[in-house]
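Standup notes
- DV: blocked on the single-chain target, sequence here:
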Amino acid sequence: MILKMSVSLKKNWGIRLSTFLTISILVSALQVSAQMESLPQWLQTARKNNPMIASVQANVEAKKKEIRIATALPDPSVSAGYFVVPVETRVGPQRAKIGASQMVPWPGKLMQKKRVAEKEYAAAQEALRGVEARVFAEVRAAYAEYYEVGREIDITRDNLKLLKQMESNLLTQYATARVQQLSILKVQVEMAILEDQLNSLDAEAIKTREKIVSLLNISSETALNFPTTLPVLDVPVEGDTLLKRAMEKNPALLQVRLEKEAATAHVGLARRMFTPDLMFMTDYIFTDKSTSSMTAPADNGKNPWIVGGSITLPLWAGNKIARIDKANAMEAMQQSMVTNTKNLTETTASSLIEDYRDARRKVTLYEKDLIPKAKQTIALVEEAYINAKATVLDYLDAQRMLLKLEIALEKQRSRREMVAGKIDMLLGGERTRRELGDREKEGE
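- DV (later): unblocked, structure below
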């Protein structure tokens, strides 16, 4: 009896445990799905998980350590020696000695090295800001692309559903000899075309999803539903305003400027190679007591202590001049990089402004003019068809036009946000950082 109760209890506990695990897995899956639904959550996940950002962050930490390394003195040296044959001196035979020495660069060298390290660290920080901004833009583009594919699928399915309803009505009418077979075939051909488009869109959705998984560095099993809305990013689109802010905020431009300043500091460091380095030394000699009666008792066996120093002689000027020439060449290269990056930033800003304005204009055109007229056309064609004044082909043409316009609208919305993301990238992702900062303050 006890055994049966035990088995029964084990079965019940097993069922409960299994149910608990199932519920936990479902809850976990729902949580993951919920976490991946909004664009800010995608951006936060990319910021934490993206391997490129992590790589550049590690480089920033390394550059930060370089500042401390730059001001560190070389390790001191300790020496020891034993006289195989004792050296006889007035106060006794010398047996052994120990010594220490410390190399000290000429004053100013370490501070110049620190200046170089600080500029390189600041440049690395700008590089990190640039990589983050690029990842933000790529995530925004992937989000917009995923939204676009999802909307295309929904619009195409809705149109396919309408065609199926039309096919059903036509088949009913065909059974009563009220319509011709040609009309049914035209509808069926249109349905086949839409089904093929759906298959292509499904394949495109899979590729976009793989891109998103790679950008966010998340498990391929993570639920990623199609976004239902596409947030509009507020970016400056006035030419003078955007260009001015880009000159102040663009990470690539700020990075090359700092690298140019680091190269200038390298020139100063190379010139300081003509200054000598100093060496401070000390030795302590162990002396045995002398057996000579001429040695004063106070000096007998006295251990001498020596303090001294040395200085390097920068006589070999050839390699030092070569260092200066190399540093000057690097400075000139960095100055050219600054000019090139500045020109590229100006060109990119102008191009992005035109692209954004064009996309925004087309969105307004489709929303306010073309799509309302296309819907009005369909309504008129339906009425004409009911009154036998229009054919199925007229209706299909009108429906096909509306489908193209609706898809074109979503493409332009997606394009507008992709370009907005690029504009934000040009400014170092400042709008995205502001959004993420606001969400973090709200505890999201």
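- Follow-up: The two ends are 55 Å apart (CA to CA).
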